[in-house]
Amino acid sequence: MRAIVVRSFGATPELADVPMPEPSVGAVRVQLEAAGVNPFDRKLASGILDGKLPHDFPMILGVDGAGTVSAVGPGVTEFAVGDRVVGKFLVPPAGHGSFAEYSVLPENATLVRIPDKVPTVAAAALPTAGVTAQDMVDASKIEPGQTVLIVGATGGVGSFLVQLANMAGAHVIATARGTAADQMTRLGAAETVDYTRGPVAEQVAAAHPTGIDVLFDLVSPPETLAELTALVRDGGTVYSTIWAADEQALRERGIEGGNIESSGRAPELTRLLERVAEGDVVVPIDATVPLSAAAAVIGAAGARGKTVLAI
């Protein structure tokens, strides 16, 4: 079968022929139709989990994937052949991911059925970015009327954050280029700050001199995040997804949050899929590209929403 692999940490991803996987006890094989691309895919290929998780080479990349169960191993009770499913294809040993025609996953991993109203391509874009956004909104306990600043709003996680924060009743400020302002408004942003027109902290401070309640930052390095944190009222909340937050400094001001890593699994993914099926959450897909073109989009910057591989 075809798959996108790296043959060592730091190697260039390439299309290769690899053996068809077979499901063992308690596992299912999924014939993948679509796979979501995330910044973590490049980090995984570079060895971010080296020493933390066993790896197999050639390492098949890809965490998010959706398709149809094509085979089940002995003892499987939760899924049957023909079920349409979506999940996170990162289990030890790493290297058997979703950027492939088939992949095997334990039935008790993050794997759930896709509602009839949700297209497979849309489902594939959800597990990492969508659940991360949902975890952040849940953790921040947003109250109606609070002001929430989302830095990096046009990316995968950010596009979901704008929607979910708006659904929670927040006044959402999104950072984006001016050309993306209409998109942010459609997703639920009340304001858009064009980061190309000057420092975001200065623009937000001018518009909101009394401060903001919640800061979600998906892109800023520590020094920039510290400047933006000054906008947050004492007792507010700050979350960084790239481990840029100085948690001790936050606590000194009574600010909640810090560095966050998504822990959402099957129940959280199911809840998000239900919101998509009901039409409450839109899956913003920026581009759909064939599996053979994966190397060109893994780690690429500038997407407005999610990039999905068609397999």
Which features does this protein show?
311 residues, alpha/beta, 10 helices, globular
Please describe what this structure looks like.
The protein has 311 residues and is an alpha/beta fold. The chain has ten helices and 17 strands. Strands 3, 5, 6, 8, 9, 16 and 17 form a seven-stranded mixed β-sheet that branches. The longest helix has 14 residues, at 127-140. The chain starts with a strand and ends with a strand. The mean pLDDT is 96.
Order of helices and strands: EEEHEEEEEEHHEHEHEHEHEHEHEHE
Radius of gyration: 20 Å
Number of strands: 17
Shape verdict: globular
**Structure classification:** alpha/beta
Note the main sheet. 7 strands, mixed
Task: Give the helix level as a range of percent.
Answer: 25-40%
End-to-end Cα distance, whole Å, is 11 Å
Question: Which parts are unreliable, with pLDDT below 50 for 5 consecutive residues or more?
Answer: none
Counting DSSP H or I runs of 4 or more residues, the number of helices is: 10
Mean pLDDT: 96
